[in-house]
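Bit of a strange request maybe. I'm writing a small parser for structure token strings and I need a real example to test against, not something I typed by hand. Could someone generate the tokens for this chain?
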Amino acid sequence: MLATMRSWLLFFVLACGPSIPREQLLDDLARAVATPVSDADQSAQHSRTVQAAVDADALLGLRRFEVEEKLGRGDDCSRHPRCGELGFASDDWLYHVGAMGEGYGGPVPMLIVGFDREGVASRVWNLRTHE
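Reply from user aminoacidic:
Good idea to test on real output. This should exercise your parser:
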């Protein structure tokens, strides 16, 4: 229940409050990428964090090395069929946001970052696990 209330509060702040600074969104996203998901509520919370970063275009315009500094190196898209289905290049990066925690077998959010020929993040896509 408390997690649901926090989620709604976060939604309200994101929807109605001042915009969150880019660095804060990236820091929040980095924590979500690194924090294992232990249940569906935590997966939904991570999903909202990814959605906030995507909606604010926080990753767009960053160079590949900057994305790696912030989030770590993602998996090469060549290893994931979903990337090709969505038109991403084989060297774009996919992140499973929050590795599955012990005892949790449900979905975790997914983030794909696409880079242009100069290595600048030019496109993102996310798979949400929240409503």
